Structure formats: structure tokens, C-alpha cells
Amino acid sequence: MKKEEFLHHCLEAEAGRDTFVTHPPSKEEGRVVECNVEKGHLIVQTADNHRRCWDYRECEDLSHSKSGPMV
């Protein structure tokens, strides 16, 4: 993911809007709940309710075409 996309996800999460990313190395996806801009980390909540910390450079934007819970 590019830094601009990372910052966009951070702003969306900070504003209370749902924003989602995928982490190809772990084959997980999650909702961004917070960011550490200085370290370049996304804190995400996965579908199985775990929190993960991922480097934004290892993530990709995830656009859901439908609303509802992740499966």
C-alpha cells in the first residue's frame, strides 16, 4: 500500500468510519481501528475479533462490495 492510502485509512478510522485492509502475508483482513503514523502501523480488528498490528507496506486496500460483517 502507498503511504497516501495508509494515511487515508488512518483519517477514516479516526473519524469513526469503517475502513478495511487485507494483509497478504497472513491472508487476513480486518477493519482499521487505529494507526501509529510514526511507525507506519495499522491496528486492525479481524473477523475473528483479534487485534493485529501490520506494517502498512505489507497491506492492501480492501473494498467490500456489500455491507455487513466480514466472512
Structural class: alpha+beta
Strand-residue fraction?
Answer: 35-45%
**Number of helical segments with 4 or more residues:** 1
Oligomeric state of this protein: single chain
Share of helical residues: 10-25%
Secondary-structure element order, as H and E? HEEEEE
How far the N terminus sits from the C terminus, by CA atoms, comes to 23 Å
The strand count comes to: 5
Task: Determine the mean pLDDT.
Answer: 90
Q: Low-confidence segments, ≥5 residues, pLDDT <50? A: none
Q: In words, what does this structure look like?
A:
The chain has 71 residues and is of the alpha+beta class. Helices cover 17% and strands 38% of the residues. The chain has one helix at residues 3-14; strands at 20-23, 28-36, 41-46, 51-55, 60-62. It has a 5-stranded antiparallel β-sheet. Strand 3 (41-46) and strand 4 (51-55) form a beta hairpin. The longest helix is centred in the N-terminal third of the chain and has 12 residues, at 3-14. The termini are far apart. 17% of the residues are buried. The mean pLDDT is 90.
